[in-house]
């Protein structure tokens, strides 16, 4: 896959010889089959190389949000220090998004445990009412339930 994306020998070698090259190439092929544009794949390949270097990927171990965000913070601070970014926001966000999607694809993403939502039975009843009695759209129902949940937690 890297051969299709990169023309220069050194850049190609960097991606081919980088950590988890086979897994990165497999993910990029998957995204290409889904119809991702070449520019998108190039950006993704560059970010995947960074992710594979920054996140401590131990074979067979799942990686959680906390580890991804810590690595993203280190990467974003380094980008800002070297004046490649004015703020950490975009570097951090792209890193977290890319790492999360890649690790989910590999089956190595550890989801955070969901906290019990207070009054969830009442919110579910409210959602059912909004759907069946009022005939509201799914997006509207989700918004109404979010506001109701905030109110009930308060």
Helical amount among residues, as a percent range?
Answer: 55-70%
Count of separate DSSP helical elements: 8
Largest sheet: 2 strands, parallel
| C-alpha Rg (nearest Å) | 21 Å
Q: Determine the mean pLDDT.
A: 87
Unreliable residue stretches = none
Which structural class fits the helix and strand makeup?
mainly alpha
How far apart the termini lie comes to 51 Å
What is the strand tally?
A: 2
SSE order: HHHHEHHEHH
In percent terms, what proportion of residues is strand?
under 5%
Shape: elongated
Please list the strands of the largest sheet in the order they lie side by side.
1-2
Description of the molecule:
By secondary structure, the protein is mainly α. The chain has eight helices and two strands. Strands 1-2 form a two-stranded parallel sheet. Helix 4 (38-54) crosses helix 6 (89-106). The model has no long low-confidence stretch (mean pLDDT 87).
Quickly describe the structure.
With 154 residues, this protein is an all-alpha fold. Helix content is 69%, strand content 3%.
């Amino acid at each position: 896959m890297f051969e299709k994306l990169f023309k220069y020998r050194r850049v190609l070698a960097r991606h081919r010889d980088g950590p988890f090259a086979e897994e990165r190439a497999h993910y990029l092929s998957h995204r290409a089959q889904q119809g991702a544009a070449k520019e998108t794949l190039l950006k993704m390949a560059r970010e995947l190389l960074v992710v594979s270097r920054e996140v401590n990927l131990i074979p067979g171990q799942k990686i959680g949000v906390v580890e991804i965000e810590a690595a993203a913070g280190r990467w974003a601070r380094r980008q800002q220090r070297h004046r490649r970014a004015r703020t950490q926001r975009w570097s951090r966000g792209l890193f977290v998004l890319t790492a999360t999607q890649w690790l989910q694809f590999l089956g190595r993403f550890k989801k955070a445990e969901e906290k019990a939502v207070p009054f969830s039975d009442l919110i579910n009843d409210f959602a059912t009412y909004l759907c069946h009695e009022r005939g509201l759209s799914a997006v509207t129902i989700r918004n109404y339930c979010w506001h109701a949940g905030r109110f009930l937690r308060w």
